[in-house]
User: What shape does this take?
Amino acid sequence: MCDQSCIEFANKILKSEDVRGKSVIEVGAYDINGSLRSMVEALEPLSYKGVDIAMGPGVDEVSNAEDLVKHYGAEQFDLLICTEVVEHVQDWRTVISNLKNVLKPHGILLLTTRSKGFPYHSAPADYWRYQISDMEIIFSDFSIEVLEKDPDQPGVFIKARKPENFQEKDLTDHLLYSIVKHKKLITINDEEVNQIDRYWNEIELAVRRKLSILLPESTKRFVKKKILRIL
Assistant: This one.
């Protein structure tokens, strides 16, 4: 997933020498509303592997972000792209750790995600919001080359490089803003996740019931096909 501002950021900060002849992995590669793949492949990487939790457009292999090192091994890739993913993972620390450790020394991480103020969007779930200050702490064990806000909507973009003598930062006590609980938390438990899922299911059901009363049949079919399927 990658919208226009994400594409423009990557086009601005990715240099030819970052990509040409390098091994690239894209984590969260399922192309729903845009992708960096064609732009990156035009810079002639040695290889490009798109991974996600399900097969689909842009996906070469299925792998959970929590299992990247287990799946591929440590220090395997020169460039890691991860756009609009880490807000959707419940265990963000494990995912971030895998993103860091699957990269080779001097490898580059390009990551985009959402910040506080961006609405809840389940795809398939939504948990966290990251600020500039969070990224400064989370990637303090990397060399941050570019860190900026999304110019169009609440979000943050980062390009960071893994050092030769990488020592991973302990993020156990770092508080992150939860879109589920609307406050900073260490973690979110399964019951809290289930509560928010039930909440949104109830909203969708209420909308369906109201529309079934108010709308003519032709409009109902359009709404069901074009609108309710994305809620």
Notes: The beta strands are 23-27, 47-52, 61-62, 77-83, 103-114, 128-129, 143-149, 155-161, 176-178, 183-185. The chain has eight helices and ten strands. Helices lie at 4-13, 16-19, 37-41, 68-72, 92-101, 132-138, 190-214, 217-226. The chain has a mean pLDDT of 89.
